[in-house]
Amino acid sequence: MSSKPKKSAYKASETEKASASVAMAQYQRFKQKYDPLLQQMRDASTSEDPTNILRNRAAADTSQALTANLNLRGARSTTDAADYTKGYLSQMGGATTQGKEIQGKLQTNVLSIANQQGADAASGLAQAARTQTGVELSRLADKQMVKNKKLSAVAGLAGSFIGQGLSNLGSKGEGASFFTPGGMTNKWSIPERVKKSGLYG
Amino acid sequence: MSSFYDIKEGSYSSVRSSGTNQYGLPTVDNPEKTFAQITRNQYLDFIKEYGDFEDDVIQRSQTDTSIVDQAREDAAIAPALATGIAERNTQRYGIGLTPTQVAQRRKNIQLGSTLGGIQSVADAQLGQREINKGILADLINIGQGVNRSSLSTMGSAAQNAADRRTAYNRDKASAKANKYSTIGALGSAAIFAMAF
Asked: How far off is chain A from B135, nearest CA to CA, in Å?
């Protein structure tokens, strides 16, 4: 006949005790270190709106792209200001949408962690650093640049024309006029100084 | 008896351990009771710390119009901003624009801000809808996870209850059988004794 069971045989093993002890310590550590961080994340997701950061960035981008290269043509233009308005609205709208998206992700991330379903490591704020100048803004900046280049080309041509005319007027020899250098008997012939240069033999 | 500081309560938690061992780790005399306390506290903590926050996010995912509102505000501000920039630039170069040029510029700014504003608000409405739906989808995913987890826990509890009832019925029947067997044995012994 077997003896009755001993109570001591049913005690937790040392391994079980150690596991429970470590589990308790880990739980305490989580509560002390990580729980307050999650609460900070919760508060930050409602108070520190990333939209403001992105909107400031967008406003700066717009100004840099459309007003940084100020020139006389731009100051006289009647359309550049309207382009700025379009660019500003486009950039600010995009930034607001992007910021609200990030904020929403932050908030659902907090809830996800609080519900013990894991965290999304990407905060989305890094997008702020990668924000590219918008397509509309680039288009408007390009438009301004083309206008400036056109004006510059026209100014260059006019400058050469006037410069050559003045040079003709100041040249020695008879018959010097704005369109004809002095010393030319036949105004359609090759000028003497060009002949001397050896280019035409 | 040692305990740990509960950040949320601002006091020592009701989940306690009964001291520390030689390694400084908390000792757990009754893991079952401790686990029950932790499980209960986790839920109560969530409700206390994140309950309102969760309700607020759910509410906003269905009613938020902040992007559209902001787009309308921007559309109202933009013309004055552009006019100011244009006027300052004109002053910097000391240019005198003709009244026609000034009128043309004003007209262009108005046109640009009207068209830009319409597009901006339309884009904002699309963006708002997209974001609200995205947040709602994330929330539903979280809810599904909670639902799955709770059903799993409830399933375990129900299975344990069923196992206990089965064991109880089995043991009851076994005890009854033992009792009748003992009575039978005693009766047999009595009859046997009377016979001899």
From this structure: 6
**Per-residue pLDDT reduced to its tens digit, A36-67:** 999 999 998 888 778 998 999 999 988 888 88
Q: What is the pLDDT of residues B18-69, one digit of tens each?
A: 688 888 898 888 888 888 888 888 889 999 999 999 999 999 999 999 999 9
On chain A, the residues whose CB falls within 8 A of the CB of B34 are 20, 24
Q: How far is CA B116 from CA A42, A90, A100, A159, in A?
A: 36, 7, 21, 39
Contact B4 A85 (CB under 8 A): no
Full 3-state SS string of A33-82: HHHHHHHHHHHHHHHCCHHHHHHHHHHHHHHHHHHCCCCHHHHHCCCHHH
- Best to test chain B binding among A85, A98, A105, A136 (most B CBs inside 10 Å): A85
Q: A127-142 burial, b for 16+ CB within 10 Å, e for fewer? A: ebeebeebebbeebbe
pTM given for the model = 0.69
CB contact under 8 A, A117 and B145: yes
Report d(CA B40, CA A122) in Å as an integer. Answer: 31
Does the distance separating the beta carbons of B53 and A75 come in below 8 Å?
no
Does A97 contact B74 at a Cβ distance shorter than 8 Å?
no
